[in-house]
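Lab notebook, bench 4. We co-purified these components, and the gel suggests they stay together. Before we commit to crystallization screens, I want a quick structural picture of the whole thing.
Request: model the full complex, all chains together.
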Amino acid sequence: MTSPRICATSSSASGQPEMAQESWPAPAVTPFRDALAAALRRAGQIPGLATLLTLAGTVAFWEVAVRLFAVPSYLLPAPSAILGTFGVIGWDRWATHIAATLRVALMGFGLSILIAIPLAVLMMRVQILSRTLYPLLVVIQSTPVVAIAPIIIVVLGAGDAPRIVITTLITFFPLVVATATGLAATPPELIELSRSLRAPGFREMTQIRLPFAVPYIFSALKISITLAVIGAVVAEFCAAEAGVGYFIQVSTSLFKLPQAWGGLLVLAAMSLALFQTVILVQRLLFPWSLPKSR
Amino acid sequence: MAPPPAIRFDRTGQVFSARSGRVEALRDVSFEVAQHEFLAVLGPSGCGKSTLLRMIAGLLAPTSGSVEVYGRPVTGPREDIGIVFQKPTLLPWATVEENVTFPRRHKTGRVSRADRTRAQELLEMTGLEGFGKRLPDELSGGMQQRVGIARALLMDPEILLMDEPFSALDALTREVMGFDLLKMFADRPKTVVFITHSVTEAALLADRVLVMTGRPGTVQTEIAVPLGRDRGPETLKELAVNDLASHLRDLLIGKRAA
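Here is the predicted assembly.
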């Protein structure tokens, strides 16, 4: 990502003195500068190092700025204060909250897949369904989930059910749309081939259309999995006894801002991990569907 | 009585009703293709050449006149016909061998040992020996189109429809593919309808060339190619081929200028 760029700049910076060394006596500083340039070049090739340095730099700047200007912790706590809360809260409490949020996010996401893909297939096969369901889906999508969430909580009562439904509502629209697009994007030649073979319709779906939709579905899954975390948190804001979103809300109401920031950090890490998992699943199960890196 | 021709078009027309109005793709098209004949259909783009193929395959019903295959009107999709498309359109997730056996797996849900043996034969015949386990992505454009041809031949169809199959390939690959195709038909004769917009390709490969005019597509003329089936790279140098090619070119360009 950013690492090749660092590699390129460091090598071009080092190119000059290296060439100069051959033609005439080298200045005394060159060996050191060369070594530094070479080290930078090697560092540029370590994957993720640039990202890590950027992150570390940002955190360091944050820490120094907060201390230097004595920013009150309810405005912006220092990174050290945020990390300190992890020890105070204790890992078992963190684990409880993380498990609660993860459970809702994953179950909502799973339910969303179970509904969205068959629905897209059905809409592809039955034209009338497509015409009648699509406007309905758009209406659901246009309604802010944050606004329906309290209503759903009231209707479905206590337990995970309302939270899972909220998560499903927020995640399934991109999935339906992407799957439907993918199913329709199949090369028309293969559909003609299927028709000329007089093959049964379900095989046109399972052997041609669905596999061709896989790249589309995975693009949507990547969007949906991060939306799932948002859905779970929104639901926890409305009503919950546990969960990272619930934890953030409680911490904020108690003016324990470093704790709330800690919760935020956990959510970001969770989203990132889930996103990477989706990418990993695609790479393992459908390597052919990845964009060609050339 | 003589046996009926493999394919017969009798005053066939095709009109599409689009949102913007009626589009006449073909008008009053009549021609015949004899058993095991190689017919090239030559014409400007948009003259309804592909529509012609789709009507033979039974994917499209004529709006007037009739299309007959072996003396019987075409009423629906026919399985005894192989189709090679302009683009190879292979399944990117399936190996070359799985792509070749795809028609069987798609039709019946399973592939027999005999099918796999047949696929192996076809891969040898199309010069793809040893590539069976590769993915289409690892193959060049020409090799991918060879897979497309092998796929079309899996069910051993009597009639092979080819829709500008080599138009996406470079000139050299194109010539080699053409001659390889003729070599294949020498062993296993097929009735071939070959759509092209290359005059040289039509002259080099076909027994007969059907020249069409554009919008709506009509038959301008039919020309027999004065060459035997035994053709190779040296055929390119023959005067007869060059004469025919320039004659065909005149027909196409003359019509456009008029």
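The mean pLDDT of chain B is 85. Worth comparing against the SEC data before the next meeting. Chain B has two domains: 7-80+160-257, 92-156.
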